[in-house]
Amino acid sequence: MRSDEVLKEKFRATKYSVGYDQQEVDHFLDRVVDSLRKYESGESIERQPVTAHTVQSVQFAPTRFREGYDPHDVDQFLDRLSQAFSEFERGTDN
Fold first, then answer.
1. Per-residue confidence at 10, pLDDT binned at 50, 70, 90?
2. What InterPro entries does the database record attribute to this sequence (predicted)?
């Protein structure tokens, strides 16, 4: 997965059911994009990079009475991100 793919990703919104806090998800994805761009360019990653473990362990605050991101959509995307970071970490990026 490339940084531009992360930037283009869209999640369904929830309104009256539990979702993930949109600002938290967006902030985390900003960090993901920053780390992916460094991997893609071969730059060294100095400040706390996102890793496969980071993606696997991230948790977002739930929303109930305001719009959030559909948890199923976000979780599926995180699974794909985790795989991508594992490949970068092993040096087998596509």
1. very high
2. DivIVA_domain
